[in-house]
Design a protein that fits this description.
Layout lengths: L6 H19 L6 H7 L4 H4 L6 H17 L9 H10 L6 H17 L3 H24 L5 H24 L6 H15 L4
Helix pairs in contact: 1-2, 1-4, 1-6, 4-6, 5-7, 6-7, 7-8, 8-9
């Protein structure tokens, strides 16, 4: 009797394997063959779940984003606490968040010149900006266009720290990243 395979579970295993490879060795390491091997499968079985590398990369990026979204705190918490937690979640202060950033950076490079991948990247940033903007508004710092500006400034600061921390982790340990986040929040008028 054939063994039942949960398609969604298998796709998760494969996108996790792709994310590990990308974080370890870059996007070039995420070949169909190497992803299958990382997951302990044959290349042929991988093609049952993803038509090609492009589809695998898009799903890997989307899975990574989904993982970040799942870390967002409960809506009933203080909005300033939620804002801090959301922005902290975007810093590469542990292996999982570092892997997310490595996937994101690799995906950005892959998205150049590819409308569908570029749209996915753009939409992800817009969704994040909208989420941060709503939190800024709930903190009663400002509203309307000014809230968008504050959100964009906070995201830009966090992204800048994250990029530096990815490539110079000795100079940017977790405690330094978090200290910079606290300064950015204070300058934005967030108190908790």
């Amino acid at each position: 009797m054939p063994r039942f395979v949960d398609v969604e579970e298998r796709r998760v295993e494969l996108t996790d394997a792709a994310a590990r490879l990308i974080a370890r060795s870059g996007i070039g390491a995420a070949t169909m063959r190497d992803v299958a091997a990382e997951a302990g499968l044959s290349t042929g079985s991988l093609t049952h779940y993803f038509a090609d590398k492009r589809e695998l990369l898009l799903c890997t990026f989307q899975a990574s984003l989904s993982g970040r979204r799942s870390l967002r705190t409960a809506r009933d918490l203080d909005p300033a606490v939620q804002l801090r937690a959301t922005l902290e979640g975007a810093l590469p202060i542990d292996d999982d968040r570092r892997r997310h950033w490595m996937v994101t950076v690799a995906f950005c490079a892959q998205a150049a010149g590819d409308d569908e991948l570029s749209t996915a990247q753009r939409d992800a940033y817009r969704e994040f900006r909208d989420h941060v903007t709503r939190l800024v508004q709930r903190c009663d710092i400002t509203a309307g266009e000014a809230a968008i500006s504050v959100a964009e400034r906070l995201i830009t600061q966090v992204d800048g720290v994250a990029i530096q921390a990815l490539f110079d982790p000795e100079s940017w340990p977790a405690d330094r990243q978090l200290a910079i986040l606290e300064v950015a929040l204070a300058l934005a008028g967030v108190s908790y």
